[in-house]
Amino acid sequence: PAPGDNGYTVGQIFAQAQQLDGKTVQVRGKVVKINLNIMGKNWIHIQDGTGDPMKNSHDLVVTSAVAPELNKIVLVEGKVAADRDFGYGYSYDAIIEEAVFKE
Fold this sequence. Notes:
The longest helix has 6 residues, at 10-15. This protein is mainly β. The chain has a five-stranded mixed β-barrel with strand order 2-3-4-6-5. 10% of the residues lie in helices and 55% in strands. β5 (73-87) and β6 form a beta hairpin. It starts with 6 loop residues before the first strand and ends with a strand. The radius of gyration is 12 Å and the shape is globular.
């Protein structure tokens, strides 16, 4: 997991999404996909080798005003939202919103 009391793995965030809803967390992972400027946000997919690909709990989406480099390992801090539905097919069991990238 990411360092600190609020550090989690991708898999832990999915497993504990209901308990973490609204809380600020940190997670470290590799940026595997970036979608720029959709609904005024950048949508970044990160993976850290945890979670279950069969349940799609291995790929955590993070929204942010900034966009890191693709394939870079990043430390993300932001608020967890559980069962977030933006409409238009954008629905997430767990997502991190308003994220910042730390070094």
